[in-house]
Design goal:
The complex is a heterodimer of chains A (287) and B (408). With 287 residues, chain A is mainly alpha-helical. Chain A contains 11 helices and 2 strands. Chain A has a single domain, classed as Orthogonal Bundle (ABC transporter involved in vitamin B12 uptake, BtuC), CATH 1.10.3470. In chain A, helix 2 packs across helix 8. The radius of gyration of chain A is 19 Å and the shape is globular. The N and C termini of chain A lie far apart (40 Å). By secondary structure, chain B is of the alpha/beta class. Chain B folds into 2 domains: 215 residues, Response regulator (Rossmann fold, 3-Layer(aba) Sandwich); 148 residues, 3-Layer(aba) Sandwich (Rossmann fold), CATH 3.40.50. Chain B is 42% helix and 19% strand. Chain B contains 15 helices and 16 strands. In chain B, a hairpin with a 2-residue loop joins strand 3 and strand 4. Classes of the chains: A mainly alpha (287), B alpha/beta (408). At the A-B interface, helix 1, helix 2, helix 3, helix 4 and helix 9 of A face helix 1, helix 2, helix 9 and helix 10 of B.
Chain lengths: 287, 408
């Protein structure tokens, strides 16, 4: 087993999950300039909804994931309507506090509904396969392929459809978008819908290789924030590239430098990149 | 607009209730309470009095499950005692009232909780299920005169010489020798260490690794894993297996540890596992799809309580399963038995509030413990306050739990 290629694959897997989570976060930031801490809770809920569908009604994994995307997406829209929309004219700090509040609320709610214990999500794709001398499981291949497919679809949606263009327009200039007749309310809701859906997809893909529990959002949310700062707040290519950079730096850093210091390596990278490009790898215009 | 909000709120609420019925939920009764909860105050009849017993543990956050399971042992013991009419000390009948506070697994919160329990509820005994909390309470427990029910296998907490600490489970360093001998003989001399990165995991490493080398073994990989930060363990496991070890030393909460085993097997590891006492083999088994020990072949760890054969175990396991619809872990078992021991000690001491007298009569409490309550066999309490329990060790051989004899 070649250690380097194995670790590259591991880095790719973890990077895919990070990217998907960071994408949802960066989309919302790009449009509304809200650092949505509650995104971690959306990730957690995504995993729980998929798991519930699978256990309770025996729904197939993919179908359960689709339901989860819908449910979490709508919850995300609801969150925008009930919390962030009324706060649109408040000072920015209020959004932050509200987001943290939602995070804590949803975590406690999940613990109330599903209990505090760890749960395991079994998928039909557990088998181990040998891919060019690498040991991988089917689920890991799915994570990688799934992430790329989702990113491509998102790209096509934003660049090639009218609705998608409205999101970009609003990210570039909110007032301008309003002036040319874009309904900013609708666009904000749409953005939250996509963001929640992305979190649900990421969680449903990643949950089988780990566990499902109320605190699972913390595993990814801090790293997702690092990624969007690294990539440029609000930038989509930045989120994707940043996710993979963090994934690779973790797996290679743990292998060739030191496992105990791999987080330091990731943050050092952040400092270095920010000192050369203070606004992140892709500043906003690269949306 | 307001009407719209009310409708939305109500529909969300109804979704929550629909979901609340979802997935059979073993820990439902114990879960979800906020920062403070007081169990229902038991009814006292004429002339009966209440003794408050304190508990400070993680009831929210990532370790909530552990805290709830620990508390469930106390809860069960207290309910049984109260149902049987309480207990009599010096002609006065008492019932037990448990007061629990959430410390989120933090030492400083545990200390604040202990203060509050002692001052507001006059608890003679305060339980806490983590070594950090115990150490924080030890700073002032002798002045404030309360006994610490320390559920931790960390030997430090009793070696410090605190006169009002009772360590309930066996010290972990007792396990080092049997674990080493078994795996070294069965699998070989090359060890890779990948335990949890908590202080407890580090202490284990620092005890196990030197002993392993002393016995002629070789440590080829030494690192740790932070279960609260890693989304995926593949990277770390790949590194640990790089040099082809015979034995993997792992541990942490049961469920993530089981995932670690699974991923090591996926990566082609065929050796044995030394499993820290924090993880329980029976809980680990439940995480695997097949619900069998096949994956864990060659693991050595603490004997799961459901498989133990002490006098009081079968009855306890049955009652626990009935009440909580789940298998009890050792944390529930030890908390259960310890409350009985404390009650017996109170009887022998003839007081319910003098913690020094209670501590002095713990040995009598152990001697007086009825056989049917012996979920574990604890012969004596050491001078330092540590229970000397029969340590029982189990290994997985051909997919079955096999008890391993431990030479004294």
């Amino acid at each position: 087993m070649d250690i380097l290629s194995q670790q590259l694959f591991n880095g790719l897997t973890i990077g895919s999950v990070y990217s998907l989570v960071a994408l949802g976060l960066t989309l919302v930031y790009g449009i509304l300039h809200i650092p949505n801490f509650a995104h971690g809770a959306m990730y957690m809920l995504g995993a729980y909804v998929t798991l519930t569908m699978m256990l309770l009604w025996g729904i197939h994994y993919w179908l359960a994931m689709a339901v989860s995307v819908l449910v979490v997406g709508l919850l995300s829209v609801l969150m925008e309507r009930l919390v962030f929309h009324p706060l649109r004219n408040a000072p920015p700090i209020h959004d932050k506090i509200a987001a943290i509040g939602i995070l804590l609320f949803l975590e406690a709610l999940a613990q109330l509904i599903w209990g505090a214990d760890y749960r395991s999500m079994g998928t039909p794709y557990g088998e181990v396969i040998n891919l060019f001398g690498l040991t991988v499981t089917m689920q890991r291949v799915l994570i990688n392929v799934g992430a790329v497919v989702v990113m491509l679809l998102l790209y096509l949606f934003l660049k090639k459809t009218m609705v998608g263009s409205t999101i970009i327009a609003m990210a570039q200039n909110r007032e301008g978008a309003h002036l040319v007749g874009i309904n900013t309310n609708k666009v904000a809701m749409l953005t939250f819908l996509i963001s929640g859906g992305l979190a649900a997809i990421a969680a449903s893909l990643a949950a089988p290789i780990n566990l499902v529990f109320p605190g699972m959002g913390h595993l990814v949310i801090l790293k997702a924030f690092v990624i969007i700062i690294l990539g440029g707040m609000g930038s989509i290519p930045g989120a994707i590239l940043g996710g993979y950079i963090l994934g690779f730096s973790e797996s290679l850093g743990a292998t060739y430098l030191s496992n105990d210091y791999k987080d330091i390596i990731a943050f050092l990278l952040l400092v270095i990149i920010l000192s050369f490009r203070p606004k992140g790898l892709f500043a906003r215009e690269g949306f | 607009m307001n009407k719209f909000r009310v409708i939305v709120f109500l529909s969300v609420l109804s979704i929550v209730f629909v979901l609340a019925g979802c997935i059979e939920n073993p820990s439902d009764e114990a879960s979800g309470e906020g920062t403070e909860k007081e169990t229902e105050t038991p009814s006292t009849e004429g002339g009966e009095k209440l003794v408050n017993i304190g508990f400070s543990g993680p009831l929210s956050g990532p370790a909530a499950y552990y805290g709830e399971r620990s508390f469930s042992g106390l809860e069960m013991a207290a309910e049984e005692i109260n149902k049987n009419g309480g207990f009599e000390v010096d002609g006065q009948t008492y019932k037990i009232n448990l007061v629990s506070l959430d410390d989120k697994y933090l030492p400083n919160e545990a200390a604040a909780n202990a203060k509050r329990l002692v001052q507001e509820h006059q608890t003679p005994i305060v339980y806490t299920p983590h070594s950090g909390g115990v150490k924080a309470m030890q700073v002032f427990n002798e002045q404030e005169k309360f006994l610490i029910g320390a559920y931790t296998s960390e030997p430090d907490v009793t070696e410090a010489g605190n006169s009002l600490t009772v360590r309930i489970p066996p010290r972990y360093d007792n396990y080092i020798e049997p674990f080493t001998n078994y795996t070294m003989e069965r699998f070989g001399k090359k060890l890779a260490a990948l335990p949890t990165s908590t202080q407890y995991g580090k202490d284990w490493s620092e005890t196990l690794l030197p002993y392993w080398k002393e016995q002629g073994g070789e440590v080829i990989y030494d690192s740790s894993i932070d279960f609260s930060k890693e989304t995926d363990f593949f990277t770390l496991v790949t590194n640990a297996l790089k040099e082809d070890p015979d034995v993997l030393f792992i541990g942490g909460p049961s469920e993530p540890t089981a995932k670690l085993v699974k991923q090591a097997r996926e990566l082609g590891f065929e050796g044995g596992f030394i499993i820290m006492d924090q993880a329980k083999l029976d809980e680990m088994k439940k995480v695997t799809k097949a619900d069998s020990y096949e994956l864990f072949e060659g693991s050595i760890g603490v004997m799961p309580l459901v498989n133990a054969d002490y006098p009081g175990t079968p009855q306890f396991v049955e009652n626990y399963q009935e009440k909580y619809e789940n298998d009890p872990g050792s944390e529930a078992g030890f908390h259960y038995i310890s409350l009985y021991v404390f009650v017996e000690a109170m009887k022998a001491a003839g007081t319910v509030d003098d913690s020094e007298a209670i501590r002095a009569h713990i040995q009598d409490g152990l001697d007086q413990l009825p056989k049917e309550k012996q979920v574990y066999v604890i012969d004596e309490v050491g001078k330092d306050g540590g229970f000397k329990a029969d340590r029982s060790v189990a290994a997985i051989e051909e997919g079955e739990i096999v008890p391993i004899k431990v030479g004294e």
